[in-house]
Amino acid sequence: MPRAWVGAALVIAALSAAIFAPVIAPADPTFQFRDGLSNVGLPLAPGTGRFLLGTDNLGRDMLSRILYGAQVSLFVSLVANTLAAGIGTSVGVTAGYFPGSVLDSLLMRFTDVLMAFPAILLALGLAAVLRPSAVVVTVIIAVITWPALARIVRSQVLLVRELAFVESARSIGAGDPYIITRHILPNILMLVVIWATLSLPNTVLLETALSYLGVGVPPPTASWGNMIADGQTYYRNAPWLILLPGAAILVTTLGFNLLGDALRDALDPRTIYRA
Fold first, then answer.
1. What is the pLDDT of residues 39-69, one digit of tens each?
2. pTM across the whole model
3. How many Å apart are CA 275 and CA 272, to the nearest integer?
4. What are the structural domains, with CATH classification, of the chain?
């Protein structure tokens, strides 16, 4: 599928930029060059002198900051998604395998409470209590993200637990831990993988939003969100300060969306086209 190849190429480009940022970045992303500003104190435009993508309002190299910003955004998103997938899967499987129990009611009501809050408001509330850092932002995004997966997994487990092979395992005396690990989890694993891939763009955008609002990764660490926040004052005289990190966000989220859609279509039998 063409979109799968396009999505994979964009994702590989974003991951490569993040992984190899220390090698390919021309400068330290926090270093303020003396010649990084024009005579009137404005950022240098892309292609000016030795700055390929120009400089920001403090004379720092934009290319270096975008590359290192990819590290922050992708690291936070990948780790947060992994945590969310683990928590959401555990909660969903437990609630779905014991439907109608007290444990099911407690887990689902707690999930409902988290889902009742708008994601960005809940994130801002948690960030206001905790000291902003990459680790804190990762935990906040994971807490906000897992309830949706828990709901999806629970509904799928309710179907799988009634299938014949699960009933057969139960009839020969297989215990609940064995059935869950050997029969339930393998049949919902691909669902979790597809969800995690499609959820990555949302976590990238959420991390960017938190950094933009000043409660994400704190300066001077380069983050696409705080780069846009720093550059918005200069949007008339130096539009590249918001356009360049915005383009990086667009490319990354588009790549994960295309790859996730292609993966879902390839693995979901209801979307397979037959000649």
1. 777 888 888 778 888 888 888 999 999 999 9
2. 0.83
3. 10
4. 2-26+59-271 (1.10.3720.10)
